[in-house]
Amino acid sequence: MTTTEARPTDRKPPQLVDMSWDPITRIIGNLGIYTKIDFANREVVECHSTSSLFRGYSVFMKGKDPRDAGFITSRICGICGDNHTTCSDYAQQMAYGVKPPPLAEHIVNLGEAAEYMFDHTIFQDNLVFVDFCEAMVKATNPGVLARAERTEAPRGEIHGYRTIADIMKAFNPFEGEVYKEALKVSRVTREMFCLMEGRHVHPSTLYPGGVGTMPQPTVFTDYLSRLMRVIDFVKKAVAMNDDVFDFFYEALPGYEEVGRRRTLLGCWGAFQDPKVVDYRYETMNTWGKAMYVTPGIIVDGELVTNNLVDINLGLRIMLGSSYYEDWVNEQPFVTHDPLGNPIDMRHPWNQTTVPVPQKRDFDDKYSWVMSPRWFDQRTGDHLALDTGGGPLARLWSTALSGLVDTPYIKATGHSVRISLPKGDSLPETTLEWRIPQWSNTIERDRARPYFVAYAAAMALQFLEEAMGMVRAGETKVFENYEVPDEAIGCGFHEAVRGVLSHHLVIKDKKIANYHPYPPTPWNASPRDKFGTPGPYEDAVQGQPIFEENGPDDFKGVDIMRTVRSFDPCLPCGVHMYVGKGKTLTTLHSPTYGANHG
Amino acid sequence: MTTHSSTTEVSKEPERSEDRKGIDEITILWISEGMSCDGDTVSLTAADQPSIEDLVLGLIPGLPKVNLVNKVLSPSLGGEDFLAPYRAAVRDELGPFILVIEGSIPNQNIIEGDGYWTSFGNDPETGEPQTLNWWIDQLAPKAWAVVAAGTCATFGGIHAMSGNPTGCMGLADYLGWDYTSQAGLPIVNVPGCPIQPENFMETLIWVLYHAAGSAPPPPLDHMLRPQWLFGKTVHEGCDRGSYYEQANFAADYNSPKCLVKTGCWGPVVNCNVPKRGWMAGIGGCPNVGGICIGCTMPGFPDAFMPFMDEPPGSTLSSLVIKPYGAVVRRLRGMTNELVNHEPRWRHNKRKLTSGYDPHWRA
Ligand code: SF4
Ligand code: SF4
């Protein structure tokens, strides 16, 4: 049973080959993709996504001081650890009933903006784009490269490259101009991050109740001068990506089917508005909608809800293919939320994690990842939402809600307008991201540079407001509190690659239960107990193959583009086998740059 | 002719390195499939003095040619080609290699049956996951040197905290603290959660100079940490030290004063981050407003929790700071000893002793 409807084809007798990529290395686990490919019909017919690493945060946090939760959960992820700390602090602030001073919110927002800029840049330019670079296209679709050489780049006056092939060359690993510049930019944006949060990856200056960052003018000046140094790089990145992605649709008709699934997107919102947020559960819908990235659940193009309370109530953690014991027969920790709504036993607040290591069996249990789903009350469906790699869901949700209206960002109901000031070589620029026709591989990738621009634009606003406060002498950054004997809390945030929630239950001033849900389980989840595949599985399964190579020298580039479009955390090595471990061919993205030239 | 003779002089240089019998080419086999967040690899890409690109491209004079096999930066093919050097090393066919391990090592001995906690590729025979432990067992005896990257790999770190279900531990707990590599070196531990980027690069480069025959082995302390990086305390490099000296303490995190009463463990933690900054001299911990939670230490995290409370004993030491400097040094030495020890549950025995109880709810 797939989430996405089957695509009609004139089928030839299938020629099936087993192919697998394992591990696709990821920040929070070891990811493997196992497929059956029908070379006669040039289509992937089956896909399983598996993770072979268990780490057990929700297990060992039990009994600890709840204030330690942010420090501990940062270590879940070595690339977006700060998103975890921030989300944990949000959850704790709800539990402790504390509202950090406004300047602290801005410092956290500025840290997160730098993180989005850093992480999306290194991921898009040093990994994703390798799949679209000259060397890769030459090895997989030589005809397309020939055409790219003849095709003038429509936005050449912005990025400076004459043809599409010139852009592709600039992305060749290790030697391409953009590839190299992106590495440098990712260091500058990380410095911006360190200015606000002390250390990257695991921040040192974030606390529940605020920050310890010394709010001296210098900190903000140092951040601003770095931001202005990269602002034109951002504008160029959007233009280059647009040129290449538009070209792909043109050069390979039907490419929109690659990685396409039903539009089932979730975004939990990011960037708090310090004027509105008070972290109370009772007012969560109000301050949730005031966030500068609007939360939302989108099903088939329709906004189902942008209320964080509804989002919270619909969370369900399913088993089915995962190596854990079920917990539904235990006593619930939380029977009702603070508004009196009943809480399901499959909700993170009530989850107990009991690992049961066992063999990998694709007909039964095959992954350490569980299957988070969102229960749609209208239909009774447990939806396998994905995050669109993060930016796609964030932009889509913000655009549809039409709530964000700031000097630099405006959500219109069908698009998001982003204004960036003049940089050293390019004038003031307004970009517009429009809701696309499909939730597919190309649109997930396209959204990413737009979100870098979005984060840069929001950073400008946070900087102006923060410096205003500092100049006015409002430099308080931390608010004290008492840890209550008993409390519950939840935090909703966006890690770089998508939704992030933390659910916390405190008893006797200690952690009684804690469950972090990062984007990976949502995107990489295995089949749940209803047999519904997770998003990677669903997006790859049934996708057409455009690569010109046959089974003997197959690179799997279309499949890798799909998996990478979800942003599986880090530049990854991909291992390919055919049949029972017999190597047919292999592919590791940087290879193409190394061999090339 | 002057030019000629000076050219001749210079060309003698390589002969001297032959005298040293150094290694000309070495492979770094990096495995990050321990229980980790991969934050050490990410941190490494932030290093700029020198950068990992400089190392791989041969831009650092006097080092052997380095073949880096790391899934992020390796110029080799992926798949079995990516694993090929690892498999060649297992068969003893690779030549000298440095094994870098990132992440803590789970205890497979506590699993009954065929399960696994973490794996690195599949067994070509069975198609089943090949465990990290299997790889370490195969590679450690053959490695020219072994480097542990980050606190997880060195001492166990966060994933080895009390109540953990995997029984995981640091590499030295797993291989034995008296392990020595083919080069006769102990494990080189570079702790940090994550590694400070330059600390790691510098250590790696020292090991490589040693491989080239142009440097002695890196000087390590009793916990196998590079002495020049971890020989001093956080406190000794902290901007806020003069406040400490004047017994002028921050009451909460709004203050630029000494953070000891709000949870800073700087006085007894071995780490150079306040001095060095986090990257390019920017950021850090107490100097920029973050309490030191002891993330480089064997006792991390348990010995430092709850992080946001005043460390026990610091009241006394901060009260008596001026008149009794010598006493304070002794007291602090004792605490330093204490936090420089790992909790006893980190071992590779058949029993899980971390305090984990799967049915704690009942
Ligand atoms: S803040 Fe920490 S490291 Fe700095 S002086 Fe105080 S106790 Fe020492
Ligand atoms: S100062 Fe403390 S918390 Fe910071 S890196 Fe060093 S040991 Fe870790």
UniProtKB/TrEMBL annotation, chain A:
Enzyme superclass (EC): oxidoreductase
Coiled coil: none
Residues that, per the record, bind Mg(2+): 575
Presence of the UniProt keyword ATP-binding in the record: no
Chain positions recorded as Ni(2+) binding sites: 77, 80, 569
EC number per UniProt: 1.12.99.6
Annotated binding of Fe cation, by residue: 80, 572
GO MF entries: hydrogenase (acceptor) activity; nickel cation binding
SUPFAM superfamilies (UniProt xref): HydB/Nqo4-like
UniProt xrefs under InterPro entries: Ni-dep_hyd_lsu, NiFe-Hase_large, NiFe/NiFeSe_hydrgnase_LSU
Co-factor(s): Fe cation; Ni(2+)
Pfam families in the record: NiFeSe_Hases
Keyword tags: Iron, Magnesium, Metal-binding, Nickel, Oxidoreductase
Protein name (database record): Hydrogenase large subunit
Organism field: Streptomyces luteogriseus
From TrEMBL, chain B:
Keyword Signal: yes
InterPro entries recorded: Cytochrome-c3_hydrogenase_C, NADH_UbQ_OxRdtase-like_20kDa, NiFe-Hase_small_C_sf, NiFe_Hase_small_N_sf, NiFe_hydrogenase_ssu
UniProt GO MF annotations: 3 iron, 4 sulfur cluster binding; 4 iron, 4 sulfur cluster binding; electron transfer activity; ferredoxin hydrogenase activity; hydrogenase (acceptor) activity; metal ion binding
Keywords: 3Fe-4S, 4Fe-4S, Iron, Iron-sulfur, Metal-binding, Oxidoreductase, Signal
EC code: 1.12.99.6
GO biological process: anaerobic respiration
Bias type Basic and acidic residues, positions: 10-20
Major place of residence: other
Residues that bind [3Fe-4S] cluster: 292, 295
GO cellular component: [Ni-Fe] hydrogenase complex; cell envelope; ferredoxin hydrogenase complex; membrane
Domain of life: Bacteria
Sequence ranges assigned to domain Cytochrome-c3 hydrogenase C-terminal in this UniProt record: 230-307
Keyword Nucleus carried by entry: no
Cofactors required: [4Fe-4S] cluster
NADH:ubiquinone oxidoreductase-like 20kDa subunit domain segment(s): 37-205
Subcellular localization(s) per the UniProt record: Cell envelope
Amino-acid positions noted as binding [4Fe-4S] cluster 1 in the UniProt annotation, renumbered to this chain: 37, 152, 193
Annotated segments matching region Disordered: 1-20
Record-listed [4Fe-4S] cluster 2 binding positions: 235, 238, 258, 264
Family named by the database record: Belongs to the [NiFe]/[NiFeSe] hydrogenase small subunit family.
Subunit structure, interactors included: Heterodimer of a large and a small subunit.
Annotated protein name in UniProt: Hydrogenase small subunit
